[in-house]
Design a protein that fits this description.
Number of strands: 8
Distance between the termini: 38 Å
Radius of gyration: 21 Å
Number of helices: 14
């Protein structure tokens, strides 16, 4: 089918390439002419403006917005709403706050335009292995986009007759539900990353001079990370990227350890507080990221290495402005 992708950063570009690979016509647009040119060479149809995006698609249209949460997404969706027609679909695949989805969906519905929110997980690895997609919106719009979701997910184009969850994508509920589920997903991710990081902190300090000499252990933490990847109950993609980083340098010297947070962890905690749900581990993991920007340690370097490995994320500034504000 035909679809447009607005925003050709790490995620948007790779999503576009995966769709093109599966035979979809993808209209590509970005503020960077170089990004558009790169995707055009890979088979995308270039569009230098939102007006051009809409003109390049036959109704009913589907436009995927893959931009940073906040003003960039808000402005783009508002402009698209003025250009698109009843029956068209606007898809928000960024890390948007689910409450913004509720508001935008109501405004678009009044104009006859569908809003679909897609929590997208997979990072830079998703280009080859596929993306896990958590989707919110009305059933008809989601069903119409099934070939797109199937192409992006690990199922590699297969559309199951039963539940699509084993294929890596799922219509989880109404508008906002996709980003709500992705928000909780990222909150859990914070906790998992913190647990790995603290474990490797203990391992790397096993031979510290402060430890009694008779108890010191010179451990090869890169080899330990590797052996855990094979048959251990703690093996995971997060452990995979950690093992690769440690294989290159067990000291992780290129990382400062200042760990950013992009919003979803905070929103998870805020939602839990509003609903009086205890989330001790997730809260501690978020606060650990705040602390890392003032007093980073080796565990924080491990988290930085993981974030770069799966998402291509850069580090925050030590002592700089609090991220997410």
């Amino acid at each position: 089918m035909q679809i447009a992708m607005i925003g050709l950063g790490r995620m948007g570009a790779n999503l576009s390439r995966r769709l093109i690979k599966h035979g979809h016509k993808v209209v590509v647009s970005d503020h960077s002419a170089a990004a558009i040119e790169a995707l055009t060479k890979d088979g995308g149809t270039p569009a230098s403006s939102l007006e051009d995006v809409v003109k390049a698609l036959e109704p009913p249209r589907a436009v995927w917005v893959m931009l940073p949460a906040g003003d960039a997404t808000e402005t783009t969706i508002n402009r698209l709403a003025d250009l698109m027609s009843p029956g068209d679909i606007i898809i928000d695949g960024g890390n948007t706050n689910w409450r913004d989805d509720l508001r935008r969906a109501a405004v678009l519905k009044a104009r006859g335009i569908h809003h679909v929110d897609v929590g997208t997980s997979g990072g830079v690895l998703g280009a080859t292995s596929g993306y896990c997609l958590m989707i919110g919106g009305d059933k008809d719009a989601v069903s119409r986009l099934a070939p797109v979701f199937a192409a992006l997910a690990p199922g590699d184009g297969k559309v199951s007759r039963g539940s699509t969850a084993p294929d890596g994508w799922l219509h989880v509920g109404p508008n906002g539900a996709g980003h709500f589920v992705k928000m909780v997903h990222n909150g859990i991710e914070y906790g998992l990353m913190q647990a790995y990081a603290e474990g490797f902190q203990i391992l790397t300090e096993a031979n510290d001079p402060a430890v009694p000499e008779a108890e010191r252990m010179p451990l090869d933490i890169a080899a330990i990370a590797e052996v855990w990847r094979h048959g251990s109950i703690v093996e995971s993609k997060l452990l995979d990227v950690t093992a690769r980083a440690l294989e290159g340098d067990t000291t992780l010297a290129e990382f400062s350890g200042a760990v950013d947070d992009t919003g979803e962890g905070r929103w998870t905690i805020q939602t839990a507080i509003e609903r009086a749900i205890p989330v001790m581990t997730l809260s501690a993991a978020l606060y650990a990221r705040f602390r890392s920007r003032k007093q980073p340690n080796f565990a924080d370097k491990v988290i930085s290495a993981m974030r770069r490995g799966f998402g291509g994320h850069s580090e925050a500034k030590i002592g700089g402005k609090v991220a997410g504000k």
